[in-house]
Design goal:
Distance between the termini: 58 Å
Largest sheet: 4 strands, mixed
Strand content: under 5%
Structural class: mainly alpha
């Protein structure tokens, strides 16, 4: 009988770039379907895999497994089998570039035979001496040298394949970064962003598109990106986005020795502690941890925010949300933010105040406004406001300003966004003594005294309560997520679904800022 490793290998052979988490999800799905041996894989359909894979990935797996079964049953025709073609393809990809260039591009680029990229010889010897010196000395290459490197790599790639796919360039970028991580990896202060090679993939893809542009018929219309994702039911799409960045989104079992009765008892105990305002933060975290199973059940079944606030009031305050967030994502909400703020905040601020960043009108206007506002200025406040300006995202999507003396019941909620929003009691984030947290146009915490804590609560709400990032804040929130809250999923997105918007593993605008920061660090 085949082992679980055989099935894992069967997945990896077709989709080598999948993360361990996604492979595990596919294995779990196959197990639920009753798959016990690799022979069973021939009966898997594309629809079986759509909840955990993108449609194209699912199709590739199903096609490959069906093809393998067909080949096994016609072993006498091995000379004309796909495996034979694949062997000749591999041999061709190992030949020198000059001979590879004369081979048929369409044959080299068959979507069912992606092995040429695995054996592609990266032409290090053709790169400029200045660049190789930089790489060997583990320094960051300048933007000029990096562009030259990309140009040469793409030139060699297109001698072998005229239409390389993103999976091809991903494989090449992965190997390049693996060889020179200090020089090429996407990193800020030692923290790797995503896989670490997304910005290089982005550059390779952009160069390929530029080279191919003259050959692209101008009247050809591209299919909408939603054509593939429309095959996944809306409920499943929402669930996939909700689970983005989470490690324990829906626990299957009550922790031992908990029972339904003990959970209810602890919930009532927490409600009383909150009402009496008589509690220690550590006690709250421990109670939140032990009742996490029941909290997730309530949240995931769509309980309203007001009802959740009544039943689980601590979830909307620092101690309770931090405990829930850690169980959900494996990240300590406030510790991660303050640690990264100390490590990266000053350099980010320094970059946003430099001439290149100020070329953006919004950044310059924001800087002038911040200079005129006097008060207890904090680096965190300045950083968030400048990030919004840098990405061209509106401040009112994140902050709503009211009178300094306003009470929660006096705030006109019609003008407040439905997504998590900070209500600022005062005319400026710098001078405000109090902030309120609003979710679903309902104030759920009316007394937050520090801006950094307010940011943590606002950000944590997106994850704890299954809320998607609004399109109007997608870049700022993802940058904070990856660089300041240390959540770096390998695939998917937290941004609310849009049929017209292409989904990237990492937001390209976030990648650009990360790359600029990395260059800024070495200058």
């Amino acid at each position: 009988m085949d082992t679980q490793k055989d099935i894992c290998d069967a997945i990896g052979a077709v989709l080598p770039g999948l993360s361990h988490e996604v492979v595990a999800a596919v294995e779990d799905t196959l197990e639920k379907l009753g798959t016990t041996t690799t022979d069973d894989l021939q009966y898997i359909t594309e629809g079986d895999l759509l909840p955990v894979l993108k449609p194209i990935q699912a199709r590739r797996l199903v096609a490959a497994w069906a093809q393998n079964n067909s080949t096994a049953s016609t072993s006498g025709m091995a000379s004309s089998s796909p495996q034979s073609v694949q062997s000749s393809q591999s041999a061709a990809s190992l030949s020198p570039p000059s001979s590879a260039a004369t081979s048929s591009p369409s044959q080299s680029c068959s979507p069912f035979l992606p092995t040429w990229a695995d054996s592609f010889q990266i032409p290090w010897q053709k790169l400029p001496e200045e660049l190789m010196q930089t790489l060997e000395r583990q320094k960051r290459p300048s933007a000029r040298l990096r562009r030259e490197m990309v140009r040469i790599i793409v030139s060699e790639v297109m001698k072998i394949c005229k239409n390389p796919t993103k999976s091809n360039t991903t494989e090449i970028a992965k190997r390049m970064v693996s060889r020179y991580p200090k020089s090429l990896e996407d990193v800020i202060d030692g923290d790797v962003i995503g896989h670490g090679y997304h910005s290089l993939v982005k550059q390779l893809q952009a160069r390929i598109e530029n080279v191919r542009r003259p050959d692209t018929p101008k009247i050809t219309k591209r299919k909408a990106e939603s054509d593939d994702t429309d095959e996944i039911p809306a409920e499943q799409k929402a669930s996939i986005q909700d689970m983005y960045g989470c490690v324990n989104w829906e626990p299957k079992f009550l922790p031992l020795p908990e029972t339904v009765e003990s959970q209810l008892k602890k919930k009532e105990e927490m409600k009383k502690m909150f009402k009496d305002q008589n509690y220690a933060a550590e006690d709250v975290k421990e109670l939140v941890k032990s009742t996490y199973y029941t909290q997730r059940k309530d949240i995931n079944k769509g309980t309203s925010i007001l009802k959740l606030r009544q039943e689980w009031p601590f979830l909307f305050h620092e101690a309770g949300m931090a405990g829930h967030f850690q169980q959900l994502t494996g990240i300590n909400l406030t510790e991660a933010f303050f640690t990264n703020l100390d490590k990266k905040g000053e350099r980010l601020l320094n970059f946003l105040k430099t001439v290149p960043a100020q070329k953006q009108k919004q950044v310059l206007e924001c800087l002038l406004k911040l200079q005129s506002e006097k008060g207890r200025s904090s680096g965190c406040t300045e950083m968030v406001l400048l990030l919004l300006a840098y990405f061209g995202e509106k401040e009112e999507n994140m902050f709503h300003y009211v009178e300094k003396t306003s009470l929660a019941e006096e705030v006109e909620m019609e003008a407040v966004p439905a997504t998590p929003c900070l209500i600022v009691c005062g005319s400026s984030c710098f001078t405000a003594d109090c902030f309120m947290l609003s979710i679903d146009q309902k104030i759920v915490n009316d007394h937050i005294t520090a801006f950094p804590c307010a940011i943590c609560l606002m950000f944590g709400s997106y994850y704890c309560f299954n809320i998607h990032y609004p399109v109007g804040l997608r870049s700022t929130l993802e940058f904070l997520q990856r660089c300041f809250f240390s959540i770096n999923p390998e695939r998917g997105t937290k941004v609310e679904h849009s049929n017209r918007r292409k989904v990237f593993a990492v937001n390209p605008r976030v990648l650009t800022l990360i790359a600029n920061l990395a260059d800024h660090e070495w200058t």
